[in-house]
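ok so for the tutorial part 2 we go from a plain amino acid sequence to predicted C-alpha cells. step 1 is just haveing the sequence, like this:
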Amino acid sequence: MRRRSWEHFEHDADIGLRATAPSREGLFEAMAEALTALVADPEDVRPVESVSIRCEAPDDALLLTDWLNALIYEMATRRMLFGDWRVSIDGHILDAVARGEAVDRARHRPVVEVKGATYTALSVDRDSAGTWHGQCIVDV
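step 2 — the prediction. this is what the C-alpha cells look like for a chain of 140 residues:
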C-alpha cells in the first residue's frame, strides 16, 4: 500500500496543502506534517513534549480544518513546532497526540507564520482504490 505523502501548492497570497494516505488517520497526520513544513523542516523537530488534541466536526472536511486550526493554535500559544502526530478518528471525533518542542529560531529557522486553515479548496475524499486525499488552503 502506498505511504502517505504531501505537497504545497500556490494559491493567490495563501498556500495550499495537499496530501494522500492509505488511511483517514494517515491523511490527517500527513496534512499536519505539511503544515509544519511551511514553518520549518519537520525532521528537525524533536519529539520532546506531547500535546493532546481533540476535535469534533460534522464531516471529514470540517474535521480537517478543525484539526489544522487546533495545531496552529497550539503552535502559537505554546511557541512549539510539532514533528510527530498520532491520530485516531472515530466517526467524526479526532483524538491525537502531537509531539514536538519549543521553537529554536537558530536551529529550526522558521520562515512563515501560519494564521489559520480556511474552507477554500477544502476537500477530503477516498478514491475507488481506498486511498484518502485531502487539501486545504492556509492563510499565511
